[in-house]
Each structure stands twice: as structure tokens, then as C-alpha cells.
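Researcher: Quick test of sequence recovery. C-alpha cells follow.
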């Protein structure tokens, strides 16, 4: 069975089995090219322990003409994750035939579904445990020789609505979630289309902005019309602004440049820098009337309704052990081992596979892990570059406090998180003000998994609140 995640439940206690930090290297400015693009690379220059300057992280930007990503052949089997726990007697059974683009709903008491990215036969339906003990249903499909496209969406696409986007396109590349736009209690006034990825070293959404302009424009026009939101903003690196003249041609679409310094592309940072709004502790961007969608999600919406066909091919960035990068296109559900084989990536004992980028990605235990709709990057870290996680106590150096973009007293917050005092962490030291950039873990002299402690604390508090809400609903029933 596939297994992933940084935290495991062991004898009633959470145990950190994997973690990720960038190797403690000294980087410098450099320019390089690959696959026809010029990459301007600004990576961290780490300061000395007693220096006053903060470490500098800068996003990479793509310059030059678009190119064709490495195309991965359709695998023999795909695996799709349904976002709900496995239960007996699902509506879809092992042995059922499915078509490409077919919507597969498994349980009558929920609206969760997956979209088959291939034509074939369902070979297994099993439980799967992800990060923080979250339970999913893993659906494996053996690929048939001849592909056949399902027509259900083609008929529904004749009259687009937000409800149809939610009903058919949640599981498409970029994962375009419409929940915020459909929530009447929290009206959305601004949609921000992100033309840059949230983590470092990733170029997926920048490539989409450069290469899929028509699909993005179609998606923006549809979302604007269907949602009634008048203000659409497209955020992208300043280096791409001169090439973005044809993006967002509809009236009311505003182009804004994002600062090159990490973590400027995280939603709460963009709220502050682009919209002049500070998200209060415990609130979300949606609570303040702003919905964030990445460029690939918007392009999926645009291409789906134009072509009357659900897209099933995901674009992602592969970051190799030597830090070279390749953009690839592959079917959703493809095992990442197929990507490694095509791109000549070999794994040695102790190497680490990261889903996502270096600052906020999560380690997985097997190269059988499949590409999912929101998989924007896969990073492979050599064994000798893995920074070990330590249980050495905080030495009060203040590095985490100085670098925190949210100005949190991280050194005190992590003490409560480490001790499992999650409510005090939230009440006394601004747990929910954390924007989850991962900078605190990078600079921690003691090697503490600060970022992971904070994520775990938020997860545990949310889990308790959900349980209390369910218990209250049961008592009132």
C-alpha cells in the first residue's frame, strides 16, 4: 500500500518520521538555460550566525520562448485518491470498465469524486493514509489498449455554471475548487489568478501563463460571467509582465507584479502587498472576499468548456538531485517512477522524494506515489544533502523570529507546539497567524522541525473542533 506523510501516529503519540529542509549550502546569483528557457536564478545566500542581514530567497523567473515539456507515456496503471475514507460497498466496484474523463462517485452520502484519466478497468479500491493520518480511498485503474472518451461532461458543458465546474472539474489539473465562489454567506469580490508557484524552484504556473494564454482567457471570462465577480487580478513575476499583454483581455482584469522575494506569492502575503489587506488571525482570504486560483486551474476550466472535454494531463516541475529542472506533462495518477525513468532520475538508498517544493513540500516513501491534480512539483534530494531533523532544544538564538514574515514569536510558539499545548499556542502565541512558509525550519540552528510542529498543531486543533461540532450536531438532532 502506498504511504506518505511526515507525521505518523505511534502508540497514541505523533512521531515525526520524515521532514525536509534545504541543505545548508551557500548559493549565489547565476543565470542558466534549459529546455529553451533562460532561467534567472537567485538562490539563498546564507548569512553567518551572528550577522544582521536576513537570508535571501528569490523566486526564479522564466524568460524566452515557450517549449514543449517532456511528455510521459500513458502508464500501465494509474492511481487516483478520493478525498474521503474507504468504506465497504462503494458504488464503483473492482472490475468495472471506465472511460477517459468519466466521473466516478463512490458513495451515495457524499459528493466526493475522481475523474478517470484513462480508459481501462478498475483493478483495486483500498484505504490509503496520507499526511497527519488523513484517510483517503485509493482507486487503481489498469489501462486498456484503446482509449474512449466519456461524453457526460460534453453534454453538461453546453450551459456552463459554477455548479457544473464543481461537479466535474474539481479533479482536473490545478484542482479548480469552486467552494468559495459558491458560498453565499461569504461573497467573493476579487479573484486572484496566480501566475507563479508558491514554493521555490517551481516553474509550473509560469509555464502555463506563457503557453496557455487562450485557455486562461477563456477561464477568466467564464469565471467572471458565472460568478458575477467584477474584479479579476492576475499576479505574476515582474519579469513576465512584458510578455503578458495578451493575458486577461476581458475588461476589469488587472495585471499585478509580485515581488521576487520569497514568500511573496503565498496568498496572505499577496493580500497584504497587492490588495492592502491584512488577514486577521483565524480568518481566511475567502472570509475577506478574495479567492485565489492558480493559472493551471483557470486554464483547465477554460479548455474544458471550450473543447467539451475534461482535461486529464498535468504539468509539473521535476527538480533533480543536481538541482536541474525539467517540465513534464503526464496523466493524473501516473506513478512518479515512470517520470523518473523517462527523465533519467535514479534513486539511491537514503534519497528523499518530495512532493512540492523545498520549503513546504512533503516527503513520500515510495516512487509508486501517483501524480495528483495539485502536484505542481516533484523534487529528489540526494542522501548526502538531507538535513537531519533534531530533537535538540531551542537555544533562543532568535533566528526564526527575525525571519518570520508574520512577525510571530516563533521561538515561544514552537515550545507549546512541541509540548502538545496547542490551545495555548493558538491563544498566547498567534498559531493561526502563521502563513506556513517554512522559513523558520530553514534557519533553526538546533535543527528543530519547527514548520512541521506548527502544521501538526493546526491539524490537531482543527480535528478537535470538527469532532466537537459533530458531537454538538448529534446532541441537537
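Model:
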Amino acid at each position: 500500500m502506498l504511504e506518505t506523510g511526515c507525521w505518523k501516529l505511534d502508540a497514541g503519540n505523533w512521531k515525526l518520521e520524515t521532514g525536509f529542509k534545504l541543505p545548508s549550502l551557500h548559493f549565489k546569483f547565476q543565470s542558466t538555460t534549459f529546455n529553451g528557457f533562460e532561467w534567472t536564478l537567485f538562490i539563498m545566500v546564507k548569512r553567518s550566525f551572528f550577522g544582521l542581514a536576513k537570508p535571501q530567497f528569490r523566486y526564479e523567473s522564466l524568460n524566452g520562448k515557450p517549449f514543449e515539456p517532456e511528455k510521459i507515456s500513458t502508464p500501465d496503471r494509474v492511481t487516483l485518491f478520493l478525498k474521503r475514507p474507504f468504506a465497504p460497498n462503494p458504488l464503483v466496484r473492482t472490475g468495472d470498465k471506465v472511460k477517459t474523463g468519466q466521473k466516478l462517485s463512490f458513495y451515495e452520502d457524499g459528493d466526493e469524486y475522481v475523474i478517470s484519466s484513462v480508459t481501462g478497468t478498475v483493478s483495486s479500491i483500498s484505504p490509503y493514509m496520507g499526511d497527519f493520518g488523513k484517510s483517503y480511498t485509493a482507486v487503481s485503474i489498469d489501462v486498456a489498449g484503446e482509449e474512449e472518451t466519456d461524453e457526460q461532461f460534453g453534454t453538461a458543458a453546453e450551459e456552463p455554471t459554477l455548479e457544473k465546474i464543481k461537479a466535474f472539474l474539481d479533479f482536473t489539473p490545478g484542482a479548480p475548487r469552486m467552494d468559495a465562489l459558491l458560498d453565499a454567506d461569504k461573497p467573493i469580490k476579487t479573484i486572484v489568478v496566480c501566475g507563479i508557484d508558491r514554493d521555490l524552484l517551481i516553474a509550473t504556473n509560469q509555464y502555463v501563463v506563457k503557453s496557455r494564454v487562450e485557455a486562461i482567457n477563456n477561464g477568466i471570462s467564464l469565471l467572471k460571467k458565472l460568478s458575477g465577480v467584477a474584479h479579476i487580478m492576475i499576479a505574476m513575476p515582474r519579469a513576465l509582465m512584458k510578455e503578458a499583454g495578451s493575458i486577461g483581455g476581458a475588461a476589469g482584469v488587472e495585471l499585478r507584479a509580485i515581488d521576487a522575494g520569497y514568500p511573496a506569492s503565498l496568498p496572505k502575503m499577496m493580500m497584504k502587498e497587492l490588495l492592502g489587506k491584512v488577514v486577521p488571525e483565524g480568518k481566511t482570504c475567502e472570509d475577506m472576499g478574495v479567492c485565489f486560483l492558480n493559472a493551471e486551474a483557470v486554464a483547465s476550466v477554460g479548455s474544458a468548456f471550450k473543447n467539451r472535454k475534461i482535461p486529464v494531463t498535468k504539468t509539473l516541475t521535476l527538480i533533480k538531485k543536481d538541482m536541474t529542472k525539467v517540465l513534464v506533462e503526464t496523466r493524473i495518477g501516473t506513478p512518479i517512477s515512470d517520470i523518473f525513468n523517462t527523465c533519467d532520475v535514479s534513486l539511491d538508498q537514503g534519497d528523499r522524494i518530495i512532493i512540492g517544493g523545498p520549503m513546504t513540500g512533503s516527503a513520500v516513501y515510495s516512487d509508486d506515489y501517483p501524480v495528483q491534480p495539485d502536484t505542481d512539483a516533484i523534487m529528489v534530494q540526494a542522501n548526502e544533502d538531507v538535513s537531519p531533523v533534531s530533537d535538540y532544544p531551542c537555544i533562543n538564538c532568535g533566528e526564526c523570529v527575525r525571519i518570520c514574515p508574520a512577525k510571530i514569536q516563533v521561538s515561544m510558539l514552537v515550545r507549546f507546539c512541541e509540548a502538545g499545548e496547542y490551545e495555548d499556542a493558538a491563544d498566547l502565541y498567534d498559531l493561526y497567524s502563521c502563513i506556513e512558509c517554512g522559513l523558520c525550519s530553514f534557519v533553526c540552528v538546533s535543527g528543530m522541525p519547527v514548520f512541521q510542529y506548527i502544521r501538526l498543531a493546526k491539524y490537531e486543533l482543527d480535528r478537535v473542533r470538527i469532532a466537537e461540532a459533530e458531537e454538538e450536531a448529534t446532541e441537537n438532532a
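The radius of gyration is 22 Å.
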